[in-house]
Amino acid sequence: MLVESSDNSLGSVRFVPVFQFYDAQFEECGAKGPRPRYPRVWKTKKKIGTISKSLKLVECIKGLSNVKVEVYGALDSFIAWELEFPLITVKKAIKSLEHEKEWKRIIQVTKWMLSKGQGRTMGSYYILLNALAEDGRLDEAEELWQTLFSQNLESMSRMFFEKMISVYSQNEMHDKMFEIFADMAELGIQPTVPIVTMVGDVFKKLDMLDKYKKLRNKYPPPRYIKGKRVKVKMQYDDQNEIDNSEIKGSDVINGGESLKLHENGEVSDCDCAKEDKLYLPENIDSNVTD
């Protein structure tokens, strides 16, 4: 919108943009229109340039070897001039490495970040657990899982249970798979559809059709009405319910070999008070390759 303004000296008419007459509290936004600016009660940090920084971080470590000292030294030199730890940049770099399926680099960067005391969230530990499982380092993945499960017994997310059941299902470790499923039942955690599907497939593979039917009756597949998921109340006898002790105390026959499962429902002990049992990057020797 333009406003007519007369110039007496030249006797001409000129047009001046309207936003020039607005008060100082208004300023032009990205949509080319004025809007009021109110004082904020929280502090904001500029996040401009984190994408380019994350790409530089990825390129910095791509050509390196798998020696821990070399990788950690390159990462330390990358953030040497930063006043604060660039957590957002590192997280974006890990995401880009996930898209490229660079599992070894993800493990190295995540352990380095955790060794700095940064990003110690369940999401970061899940990324590390997934990378260890995808890289075939099952022992380290189990150690990390046991530590997290013992520390967060009643607040563990279902995605961790689903991931470990998926790992044990792929490696045909049915006894440990049933242990985790029984732990979920003891803690009152409702299993997801993929978990029920994986456990049911193992029951069918081992010709345990009676337990498969009980499992499907207790955890039926989701129902949809006109494209919307609905809850349907199921009525079944107490005999159809899967008893945890029945799952743990049964002998699973697989190719003539019996898989002895735990008869008690107690969670495996893990002394969380001892720092040497925590799975953190500080516990790994500097000469060992990641």
UniProtKB/TrEMBL annotation:
Keywords: Repeat. PPR repeats lie at residues 121-155, 157-191. It holds the Pfam family PPR. The keyword Repeat applies. InterPro entries: EMB1417-like, PPR_rpt, TPR-like_helical_dom_sf. This is Pentatricopeptide repeat-containing protein.
